C-alpha cells in the first residue's frame, strides 16, 4: 500500500451564491500529500481555505475541480469515513447530553456493542481528562476547553487511523492548549495520522512534522517544520555557563578558523514554559508567591 494517506490533486472549490453564480474561490488548485503516521498542519489566516480543505477530504463538500484520495478511496466514498475521526471547528454535539451519553450515542452510530461502548467511553473520558464530576454534566454547562475535549473524544470513538482536527486549540487557555497538544502527540505515538488546521503559529510549530501554509486558497509554502525553520548558514552551540576568559579563548579559536561569534547570550525559555511552570509550582505550594523578578525553577514540579 502507498505511504500516502491523503493525496490531493489540483483541488479547487468555488462557493456559489443562491443563484448559482460563483461567489468565493475558497481553494485554488491545491496539491499535496499527507504521509502515514505524520502530523500535518494546515496553516493560514482566517478565510484561507483550511476548513474547506478538511470538508472536501471528508466528502462533506463537492470539489469544483480536482480530486482527493484518502485512505486509498475517493473522498465521496462514505465507507472510508468509518476509519476517519473529525473534530469540526464548531461543536455540533447535543447540548443536553452529558459526556457519557454523547460518546455512547456516537458509539451506536458505529454499531459498537454495549460492552464495547462502555469500555471505549471510560478509556476516552480518561484520555481527554474529563473524569470526575465533568462527565456527568450536560455539555451546555461545559467551558470551551471541556467542549474541545469531549469533541476530541467523540472524534476518536471509532479508533480511527486518520484524525482531522479543525482548529483543535482555538479558544483554549495555555493549560488546555498544552493538554490538547500532548493528546495530539499521543495520537502519533499510537501510529495515527493527524491533519490539523490552525491559525495559531506556535501550536503548529510545536506538534507538526510538516506544514502547508495557505493564503487566500493558495498553497504558498510546504515542507517539514524542521527544514523550513532551520538556518543552515549559522551554527548554534549550547554549553554550560562560561566565564569571560573562556569566552575570549573560544572567540580566538573561531577567529583562527575564519569564523566569527555573532551573539553570546543565555537561552530563554518560552512564555508558555514559564506559565506552565508557574501553575505547576502554585499547585505544589499553594501559599507561595514570587518576588518581582523571581521565577519558578526549571525542574518539573
Ligand atoms: N458555505 C460557504 N459559502 C460561501 N463562502 C464560504 C462558505 N464557507 C466558506 N466560505 C468562504 O471561503 C473562504 C475560505 O473559508 P474557510 O475554508 O472557512 O477558511 P479557514 O478555515 O481557513 O478560515 C472564505 O473566504 C470564506 O468566507
Ligand atoms: Mg476554518
From TrEMBL:
InterPro entries: AAA+_ATPase (IPR003593), ABC_transporter-like_ATP-bd (IPR003439), ABC_Transporter_VariousFunc (IPR051782), P-loop_NTPase (IPR027417). Keywords: ATP-binding, Nucleotide-binding, Transport. This is ABC-2 type transport system ATP-binding protein. The keyword Transport applies. It comes from the Bacteria. It holds the Pfam family ABC_tran. Residues 6-241 form the ABC transporter domain. One of its GO terms (molecular function) is ATP hydrolysis activity.
Amino acid at each position: 500500500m502507498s505511504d500516502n494517506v491523503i493525496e490531493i490533486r489540483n483541488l479547487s472549490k468555488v462557493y456559489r451564491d443562491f443563484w448559482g453564480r460563483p461567489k468565493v474561490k475558497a481553494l485554488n488548485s491545491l496539491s499535496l500529500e499527507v504521509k502515514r503516521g505524520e502530523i500535518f498542519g494546515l496553516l493560514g489566516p482566517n478565510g484561507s481555505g483550511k476548513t474547506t480543505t478538511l470538508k472536501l477530504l471528508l466528502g462533506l463538500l463537492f470539489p469544483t475541480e480536482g480530486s482527493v484520495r484518502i485512505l486509498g478511496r475517493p473522498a465521496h466514498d462514505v465507507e472510508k469515513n468509518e476509519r476517519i475521526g473529525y473534530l469540526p471547528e464548531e461543536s455540533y454535539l447535543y447540548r443536553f447530553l452529558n459526556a457519557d451519553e454523547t460518546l455512547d450515542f456516537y458509539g451506536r452510530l458505529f454499531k459498537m456493542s454495549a460492552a464495547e461502548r462502555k469500555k471505549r467511553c471510560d478509556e476516552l473520558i480518561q484520555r481527554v481528562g474529563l473524569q470526575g464530576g465533568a462527565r456527568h454534566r450536560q455539555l451546555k454547562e461545559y467551558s470551551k476547553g471541556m467542549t474541545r475535549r469531549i469533541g476530541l473524544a467523540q472524534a476518536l470513538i471509532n479508533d480511527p487511523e486518520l484524525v482531522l482536527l479543525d482548529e483543535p486549540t482555538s479558544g483554549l487557555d495555555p493549560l488546555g492548549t498544552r493538554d490538547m497538544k500532548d493528546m495530539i502527540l499521543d495520537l502519533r505515538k499510537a501510529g495515527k495520522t493527524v491533519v490539523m488546521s490552525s491559525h495559531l503559529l506556535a501550536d503548529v510549530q510545536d506538534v507538526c512534522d510538516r506544514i502547508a501554509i495557505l493564503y487566500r486558497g493558495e498553497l504558498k509554502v510546504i515542507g517539514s517544520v524542521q527544514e523550513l525553520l532551520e538556518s543552515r548558514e549559522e551554527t548554534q552551540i549550547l554549553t554550560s555557563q562560561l566565564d569571560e576568559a573562556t569566552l575570549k579563548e573560544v572567540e580566538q579559536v573561531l577567529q583562527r578558523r575564519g569564523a566569527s561569534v555573532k551573539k553570546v547570550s543565555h537561552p530563554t525559555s518560552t512564555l508558555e514554559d514559564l506559565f506552565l511552570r508557574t501553575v505547576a509550582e502554585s499547585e505544589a505550594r499553594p501559599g507561595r508567591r514570587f518576588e518581582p523578578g523571581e521565577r519558578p525553577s526549571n525542574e518539573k514540579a
